[in-house]
């Protein structure tokens, strides 16, 4: 697959060390800086809308195990919020 240049422009870093991408196609990028001065930007999607991470599932399983074994906090009084 041949890669073609779709945009070519000179950018500069502002006083807060930020670089602005014109008409960026994505909202988030993974940035890799190399010791030779090259910077590689790869588009990223931070979350998949309809999935739950393995870490979250493990945390939920642990919470249910704690509940089933009786490791729970005292009931919270919410009567002040009526």
List keywords for this structure.
82 residues, alpha+beta, two-stranded antiparallel ribbon, 1 helix, 2 strands, 18% helix
Please give a structural write-up:
With 82 residues, the chain is of the alpha+beta class. It has 1 helix and 2 strands; from the N terminus they run ββα. The protein is elongated and about 60 Å long. The N and C termini lie far apart (63 Å).
The separation of the N and C termini measures 63 Å
**Shape category:** elongated
String of helices and strands: EEH
| Fraction of residues in β-strands | 5-15%
Annotation, overall tally of beta strands:
2
Main beta-sheet annotation: 2 strands, antiparallel
In DSSP terms (H or I, runs of 4 or more residues), the helix count works out at 1
Mean pLDDT: 88
What portion of residues is helical?
A: 10-25%
Strand order in the sheet with the most strands: 1-2
> Helices and strands: which structural class?
alpha+beta
In the predicted model, the low-confidence regions spanning at least 5 consecutive residues are none
Q: C-alpha Rg, in Å? A: 24 Å
Write a brief structural summary:
The chain is α+β, with helices and mostly antiparallel strands. The protein is 18% helix and 15% strand. The chain is built from one helix and two strands.
Question: Layout of helices and strands, plus pairs?
Answer:
Blueprint: E1 28-33, E2 39-44, H1 54-68
């Amino acid at each position: 697959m041949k890669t073609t240049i779709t945009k070519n422009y000179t950018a500069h870093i502002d006083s807060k060390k930020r670089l602005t991408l014109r008409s960026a196609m994505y909202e988030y990028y993974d940035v890799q800086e190399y010791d030779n001065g090259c910077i590689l930007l790869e588009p990223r999607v931070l979350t998949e809308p309809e999935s739950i991470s393995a870490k979250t599932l493990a945390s939920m399983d642990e919470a249910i195990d704690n509940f089933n074994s009786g490791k729970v906090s005292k009931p919270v009084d919410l009567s002040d919020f009526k």
